[in-house]
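Entries read sequence, tokenised fold; example below:

***
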Amino acid sequence: MRLWLIRHPKPAVPEGTCYGRTDVDTDAQHFEAVVARLRGLHDSDEGPTPLQVYSSPLSRCARVAQALSGAPWPEPVIEPLLAEMHFGHWEGKDWSAIPRDEINAWRDNIEHWRPPGGETVTELAGRGWRFLQSITPQGAAASGPRPAVAVLTHAGVILTLLKQVRGEPLNQFGGLKIDFGSVHHLEHDERGWRVVRENV
């Protein structure tokens, strides 16, 4: 199985806004560019047309999936497990306006500290992993033809999935950037999941 993890287009929010689970619009120009690029993905060397498309319920992902639907891309399945991290009371605030002691507590224990009213990185990672396991081929299907699955989601989901597939600790987030509109390629075979390419 081939899996394309696709981050949504650039959001139309002021720079520095914490918008995790908040449903925000996208930059119109970047939205069109991302959709056009993804439409041509099946004609490139990156892989076949996806047989299944899954999307976060947040509109910055779901609108892309809907824009792509129709031959040759299938209708998307909206999957709540793919939503971005819930930052609770931080949502919609400028990062600089969030109490410094809360930011420091989160950075000191990023896996398990919960933003007030939100969820932990461990809970986010668990959601993403449950989704990945739900689409993982079993038995003989794992060694058969390799279908492609496209997933429209968010930086938090993508980052924690990449970490888990590689067996890396969740508390080491530095050094890996997830670009808006980027595609990350995973493959599954008899050995399990592996990361093939990043930020395509």
Notes: The chain has a mean pLDDT of 90. Helices lie at 28-39, 59-68, 100-108, 121-135, 155-166. The chain has one domain: 2-197.
